[in-house]
Amino acid sequence: MKEIFFNADHSPIGAFSSFTLGYPGAKGGLGMELGKPADQNVFIGLQTADGKYYEALPFFDYSEDESKRFDIEKLEQGDKPSVLVWFDKNCVTRQFNLATDTWNAGDLEFKIYSPIRSVPDPEKSIDMEMKKAIVPAVFAEVTVDNTGNKNWRRVFIGYKASIPNSGMRKIYINDGQICGVGEGRNTAIVSKGENVRVANGFSMEDILGNQLVENWTMTLGNCGALILDIPPGQKVTFPVAICFYRDGIVTTGIDAAYYYTKFFRNLEDVAEFTMNNFNDLVDACKEDEKLIEGYNLPDAKKFMLCQAARSYYASTEFLCYNGKPLWVVNEGEYRMMNTLDLTVDMLFYELRMNPWTVRNVLDMFSERYSYEDTLRFPNDNKEFPGGISFTHDMGVINNFSRPGYSSYEMYGKTGCFSHMTHEELVNWCCCAFGYYNATNDLKWMDKNIDLLKSCFQSMVNRDAPDAGERDGIMSLDSSRTMGGAEITTYDSLDASLGQARNNVYMAGKCWALYVLFDSLFNERGMMDFAELAKAQARKCVDTIIKNSDKKDYIPAIIGEGIEAAIIPAVEGLIFPYIAGLKDVVSENGPYGDYIKLLKKHIKAVMKPGICIFEDGGWKISSTSNNSWPSKIYLCKFIISDILDIDADSFSKDADEVHKSWLLRGENAYWCFSDQFILGEAIGSKYYPRGVTNILWLYKK
Amino acid sequence: MKEIFFNADHSPIGAFSSFTLGYPGAKGGLGMELGKPADQNVFIGLQTADGKYYEALPFFDYSEDESKRFDIEKLEQGDKPSVLVWFDKNCVTRQFNLATDTWNAGDLEFKIYSPIRSVPDPEKSIDMEMKKAIVPAVFAEVTVDNTGNKNWRRVFIGYKASIPNSGMRKIYINDGQICGVGEGRNTAIVSKGENVRVANGFSMEDILGNQLVENWTMTLGNCGALILDIPPGQKVTFPVAICFYRDGIVTTGIDAAYYYTKFFRNLEDVAEFTMNNFNDLVDACKEDEKLIEGYNLPDAKKFMLCQAARSYYASTEFLCYNGKPLWVVNEGEYRMMNTLDLTVDMLFYELRMNPWTVRNVLDMFSERYSYEDTLRFPNDNKEFPGGISFTHDMGVINNFSRPGYSSYEMYGKTGCFSHMTHEELVNWCCCAFGYYNATNDLKWMDKNIDLLKSCFQSMVNRDAPDAGERDGIMSLDSSRTMGGAEITTYDSLDASLGQARNNVYMAGKCWALYVLFDSLFNERGMMDFAELAKAQARKCVDTIIKNSDKKDYIPAIIGEGIEAAIIPAVEGLIFPYIAGLKDVVSENGPYGDYIKLLKKHIKAVMKPGICIFEDGGWKISSTSNNSWPSKIYLCKFIISDILDIDADSFSKDADEVHKSWLLRGENAYWCFSDQFILGEAIGSKYYPRGVTNILWLYKK
C-alpha cells in the first residue's frame, strides 16, 4: 500500500476525541472516548467532470443498502452498480504535517487543521483565549477546482452514524446560516454558506443517486452529508468544522465534566463558535505548524513527531472537578487515566507546552492517589517501614478509582498487573523536579517540600531498612504486592526491564533523583538531608560500577544473575540534564565514573544481536523482542545529546526503521503505537507516550 | 433447542431499556435505547456442591482471556481449562409469566420481576406512586438452596461491559450497605446486605479463579459481579436490582430528558430507592401478574401476550419536555418514535392501562406533527383541496423530526417509504375516538372538536373533490407523494395491503370513522355533519358491496384489478365496537349488509392456499408470504368476538403456530417480532406492536 494511507488523529485539545483519517476503509471517523478509531464510514468526494459518477477519498466500505432492512421486497431485486467509487489510490496525494493534513485527488482538496498548542493555564487565561484553545472541534477546508470544466459538480462531506443508541440528524443554526449533520448530541460535521445543503440517506450512494433531492430531508437513514454544487469554471473553498460534545458529568468515582462545558452548552454552540471564528482558528493552527520549523528534522523524525503529538492530543481529557481544572491524559487503547509512568515520559512535552498540567496531575496524585506502605524482602514476611508512594493511574475509561488505589495494580503478582510502587514514587518525584525546575514555582515547592522529603525517605527505605546495608538500589518490595514483586513501567517485558528490584533502569532514575534531592535540599538549607541524598547517589553509582566489574556493560538486574543488556540503563540522566545540572551528567563531573560506564555500556550493547534488531531498529532489552518507540526516542536523545555519542552510528537508518514500524500493514491503522515485536504493533496502540520525541526540539 | 431458551425483555416502564435474557450466549444483557438486545455476557451462577467448579445459566460466551491484551507474554502459555461452565441446559427450567420470569438450575433460582402496569397520569399522581411505577430498574431475587450440603458455596451475578466508551465500575452506597457493579453512569446490578461483595476482573473466570480475593478490587477488567458466599446447610435469598439511568437532555430536534430524572439524580439514587423499597416493588409486580388471571388463556396465547407486553415496555420512553410529560413508544428495531400506525394498534393496550398516554401522543401529533396537503388523482398533476393529516412518526432514535414531517416519509415513491397521509389521518381519528369513548374526557373533546371536524373534511376530500363523485373510498393521493402513491402501514407487503388508494383495509377503517363521526356529530348537535358522515359510511359500504358482486370475497383493491384476498378487510370493525356501537357491527344493524359480506369474505378466504399458510398460521394477504402477528391477533379477535365466527375452526392450532414462529431458531433472539415470511422473522423485530393481543382480555 502507498505510504500515505496511515491513520492520523485530528483532535481538539482535552476533548478525548479524534477525527481519525487515513487508513483505507471504514477505519477512521469521529471517535469520542475510544481506545481505537471510530471505524466509521467517512465520505469526502466530488462528482466526476462528466457528471456520471462520484469519486471519494477511500475512507469508507462499500456497504449494503440499509433500506433493505425496511423493505424486504427489495431483496428480490438485483443490486444496482454504485454511483460512488474510491478515487484511484495512486492518484491521491497527502501532505502530512504537524497541524495540517492535506489530501488531494483530482480536482478536490481536503485540508484538516488540528490544534497542536499550549493549553492556557486556567488560573491565568481569559475566556476567549481558553475557548479558542479547547473548543471541541477540528477544522477543515474543502476546495474544488472546477475552473477547467463546463459542468456543475457536486461535492460532499459526510459520515455514517455508528453509536449504538444514536442516529444521524440534521443541524440548522441561525436559520440555516450554519448547517450540518450530526450523530445524536455528540458529534457533527458542519459548514456555512447559503449554498450548502444537508442530506440524509440510508447510504452515501442513496443520497447521491437519489432522483428527488426532497428526499434528502428524510432522517431515517444513518448517513448524513453536507452537499455543495460548484458552478462551472469556478474554484470554491468552503469551511468545515468537525465537532464533538459530551454534556454533564462524564466520570464515575468522582463527578467531573468536560472543561469545555463551561463555555459551550451543546454541539450547536461549538459549531456556531467554530464557524464564527473559523479564520482565527485556522490561522492559529498554521501558527502551530511552526513549532517544528527550523530544526532541520529529517522526514522520518518529523513524521514520528507529528504522529506522536497527534496521538497525545487524542488522549487528552481536560475536565472540571469541583469547579477546578483536572487534566487527564488517557493511556491510548487501555484508557487508564494519568498513568504516572506515562506522565513522566510526556513530561518533556508538557513542560514545553503547558507546565501547569504537570502541576495539576502532581497535585491530584498527592491529594487522592498517594498511599503509605510497608516493605518486605523477597520470600520473607517480615515487614519494614516503607513510606509514601503513588498509584499507577487514577482509574480507567472515565471511572476514577478509589483514593489511594489505581485501576491496574493487583496483588500477589510478580509480572504484569503487579504494583509499581517504587516506579511511581520515582516518577512523581521526577515530574515534581521537572515542574519545579522548568517554572521555578516556589509557591508550589513551599507547599510540597515536606511531601518531597517524605518521598526521599520512602526511597531510602526501599533501599534497605538498616542504613549500613544501603547500596543506593531498591532491595525491598512493597507489602502491597502481598508476597509478589514490584514491576516497572516495562510491565510486558521480561525481568530485564519488568522487575523493579535491583533493576539498573530503576537504579538510574533513583540516582538521578538522589542527585536532584541533593541539590534541592542544599538550596533549602536542609543540609542533613542533602548529605544523605548525596551519599545515596554515590552508593547507587558505586553499586552499579561494582556490578559491572569485569564486564563491558551493565547487567540489567544487579546481583540476581540476570545478565540482559538494556538501553534504558541511561534513562535517569535526562532528569538532572533538564534541571540544568550539566556537571552531574558530565564525564568530568562528580559522577564521571558513572557517566563513563554508561558510555561504555551503550557502546557495548548497541550492536546487532544485542540491542539492535536485524532490521536496524533499536531493541530496548537484549532478551526481549518487545521494543518501545517512546523509550527509544528518549534514550536516543540521552545517548546523543547527553552522553555525546553519535547515536546514528549504531544503525544508520534507525529512525527510518522506527518510522516503518508505525506504517507497516495494520500498524498504520493505530496512529501511534508504542509496543512492537519485530516491527509488529502488539500493544500500547493508539498511544500518547511517543511525545518523548519533543526532545528533538530541545536544543543541545 | 429446548423451548425455554428465548429472549424476553425485563424492562422498567418508560426508560427505553431492557434487561434481556433467555437466548443462549452473549445475547441478552442490559440494553438502553437499542433496537436489539445488548449482546452482553451475563453471569448468574453457583459453585458446585463439591466446590470445584462454577455452573451458570447459559447467557455468556466462553471468552478469550482479556488480560492477554495487556500481557503479551501470556500468549505463549497454554489456556487453562475454565472453572466456569454452563449448567447442563437440559437441567434448566423456566417459569415464564407476565411479570415474573423464574429460572431454576440445580440449587440456584433466579427470579426476575418486571412492572407490567399502568403509568400514573402525571397530572394526577403523587410523587411516590409515580416513582414506584417508573423507577428505571427491574428487580430480581437470587435464591441458593444449600440445605443439603456441607460446604460453603459461592453464588454470583454479574455482567461484562460493552458500551464502547464505558467500563465496568463498582458502586458503594451508604458505606457499602448497598453495593454493586455498573457500566459507566448508565447501567448497574446492585444488591444489599453485609455479606455481599463486589468484584472486578477481566472475565468471570478470572474473578472466580483468582487466588487472592483482594484482586477483586482492581477496576481494569471489563467484567463485574456481585458475590455472596452461602453457608453450609442454609437456604438464602438476596435481592438484586438491575438499574438504568441516562442523565440530561437525551433527544435532538427538541430537548427532552427522561421523566425519571425528576425523581432520581443518578444511578446510585435509582439503586438506593430500589433497594429501600424492594419488597413493595416486588409485591407490585406480583400484583401485576394478576392482570391475565381468570381468563383461562391457553398456553400459546398466554405466552404471546407476555412477550408482547414485555416488548412493548422495552420500547416505551417516558420523557419530560418543557416541563411536561411526553410519552413515546419506539418502533422496535427501527426505533421510530410514536409511529402513528403502531399507536392505533397499541391503543387497546394503552386505553386499558393508561389512557392519558393516548391523549399525550394525540396532542403531540396535533401540535407538532400535523400538516395540510393538497391532493391529486393518479397520473394527473392537477391539485385539489386536501386537508389536515398527521405524520407517520415523530422522529427516530431520539432525534425528533422537524414540525410537520416524519423521519420516514419520502417523495416520489409508490412503495415503502412513501407517505402514509390518509393512513395516519385515519389512525389519529381512531385513537381520538378510542380515547374519548374510553374516558369521556369532554374537556379534551371540546378542545379538539374543530380539529376532528377538519379531519372529517380531510377524509371526505380524499374520497373525491366533487361531492357527486364520492363513493366513500379513498381515490386521491397526497401531493406530498410528489406523483408517487400513498401507502398503508403494511409498507413491506405488496399492493394488496401496501397501497392506500382504493384499499378495502383502508375503506374498512374509513367506514368505521364515518360511523363514529356520525355518532359524535349527532351527540354535539352538528346535524349537517352527522348526515354527511352517515352518507359517507353508507357510500363506503355500498362501494365495497358492489365491488364484491359475483364474488364470494372482497377483492383487496377496488377497481384496479387487484384480486388478492386480505384478512384486514375486517380491521375497521374494532373501532365502533370498542366505542360501544354494537348495532353498527351487527348483522341486524344499519350496516348488516356489510357485516354479512365481511362474514362471507372471511369464511371464503380463511382457507389453506388463500389466507392460511401450510403450517396453519394466518396469512394476512393471499398474495404475500409476509404475515404480521399483531394484525393477526387483532383480526382474529374481530372475527371471533365481533363477527361471531369460530376463528379457531379455520386452523385449529393457529395460536400454537404463531407462538412457534416467535420461538423458531434465531427468531427467539428477538423477543417479540411482527413480520414473518413462512415463519422466519424478517423485519419488525424486537417490536412493541404485539399488544393488540390485550384484546384477549376484553370480555365479549
Description:
Chain A has 700 residues and is an alpha+beta fold. The first copy, chain A, contains 16 helices and 28 strands. Chain A has an eight-stranded antiparallel β-sheet. A six-stranded mixed β-sheet of chain A has the order 6-5-4-11-16-15. Chain A has a three-stranded antiparallel β-sheet with strand order 1-2-3, with helices on one face. In chain A, β8 (100-105) and β9 (108-113) form a beta hairpin. The longest helix of chain A has 22 residues, at 442-463. The two termini of chain A are 38 Å apart. Chains A and B meet through β23 of A and β23 of B.
Residue windows where pLDDT falls under 50 for at least 5 positions of chain A? none
Shape of chain A: elongated
Structural class of chain A: alpha+beta
**Major sheet of chain A, described briefly?**
8 strands, antiparallel
Major beta sheet, strand line-up of chain A: 7-8-9-10-17-14-13-12
Characteristics of this structure?
six-stranded mixed beta sheet; alpha+beta; homodimer; 700 residues; elongated; 28 strands; eight-stranded antiparallel beta sheet
Topology:
Two copies of one chain form a homodimer.
Chain A: E1 8-10, E2 17-21, E3 29-32, E4 42-47, E5 54-56, E6 84-86, E7 92-96, E8 100-105, E9 108-113, H1 127-134, E10 137-145, E11 153-160, E12 168-173, E13 178-183, E14 187-192, E15 197-201, H2 204-209, E16 223-230, E17 235-244, E18 256-258, H3 267-276, H4 278-288, H5 299-315, E19 316-321, E20 324-329, H6 340-353, H7 355-368, E21 370-376, E22 384-390, E23 395-396, E24 399-400, H8 421-439, H9 442-463, E25 477-478, H10 495-498, H11 504-523, H12 527-547, H13 574-578, H14 592-605, E26 626-627, H15 629-642, H16 654-663, E27 675-677, E28 680-683
Parallel strand pairs in A: 5-6
Antiparallel strand pairs in A: 1-2, 2-3, 4-5, 4-11, 7-8, 8-9, 9-10, 10-17, 11-16, 12-13, 13-14, 14-17, 15-16, 18-19, 19-20, 21-22, 21-25, 23-24, 26-27, 27-28
